[in-house]
Description:
The protein is built from 16 helices and 11 strands. The protein has 333 residues and is an alpha/beta fold. Bound molecules: flavin mononucleotide. Flavin mononucleotide (FMN) binds at residues 15-20, 41-42, 71, 98, 100-101, 140, 170, 201-204, 223-226.
Amino acid sequence: xxxxxxxxPSPFAIAPMAGMTDSAFRRLVKRHGGCGLVVTEMVSSEGxxxxxxxxxxxxxxxxxxxxxxxxxFGGDPDKMAAAAQIVEGMGADIVDVNMGCPVPKIAKHxxxxxxxxxxxxxxxxxxxxxxxxxxxxxxxxRAGWNDAERNAPRLAKMVEDAGAAAIAVHGRTAAQxxxxxxxxxxxxxxxxxxxxxxxxxxxxxxPEQIVDKLRSGVDGVLVGRGVLRNPWILAQAExxxxxxxxxxxxxxxxxxxxxxxxxxxxxxxxxxxxxxxHDKWIVNKLRALASWYTKGLDNGSHxxxxxxxxxxxxxxxxxxxxxxxxxxxxxxx
Length: 333
Ligand SMILES: Cc1cc2nc3c(=O)[nH]c(=O)nc-3n(C[C@H](O)[C@H](O)[C@H](O)COP(=O)(O)O)c2cc1C
């Protein structure tokens, strides 16, 4: 699997998720294996061009994350080209354009999924970017804006002609948000129609589903919420695809992941103008992850409630140890 000149060690990747896929999380998932590409949370082209500290923070990454794609959003070709140059200057391997975000705050500025409603403008953005940088420019889109405008197949061809090096398609419309299910037939049709690699995205929560989707004709699979529930899912999919049994993940492994995540977040640089302290920021990050991570776990709702009530990092660690390694507490009494 290759995007432009960038070789991916696996066709499975962590989907970009605002608020969730920070550098620490991406590194941890990558360390568990099976991950061919990581993508940052979406970053504002406007903020990049204006050099806003908080924006730059979202674009930060470490060497161990390579190959790394930085995802930007915006609708103005010149600004997107300038932002792509900044991303290239930051050393990213790939710059990705968000054409899938349905959130009004983004979409109303002619960015995110609303770009899909103006395919000529979307193609101009890609054209300006590909002329401005040497690194591959990729596009992440949805099936379309709504059921009456499922234009991903046409837009895919247009952005390919404009120089895009790969496309990712989340098989839902913006109007669907996360309801219904992703249309993987549409994604496979697009993969068949264009020459550049196509990633599919949507609804893979078991490693078997990732392998099935890969066999449906796409070149790669982006996994979002499935990774938040099970950070080992890409490694398990890689094992299954190679004909080996998928590894077991123990309760202890799951607890260790959260503790490692806390430790790594402690070492992250955070914007000093944040309203909350570094520790409080970490507690909030763990709360956000817990709402996904606890799904499907026995007594997961208890863990979620406990994490939501934690006021300090010490409390958080104790709750995690208590839940995932109860034997430790038995030994101590
Ligand atoms: C919390 C959350 C944040 C997301 N943020 C982004 C984003 O910043 N950029 C983007 O292109 N997609 C974003 N997505 C969409 C995902 O990348 C993915 O396409 C979608 O969730 C479907 O895949 P899944 O079913 O594997 O989660 C986000 C999804 C979630 C759940």
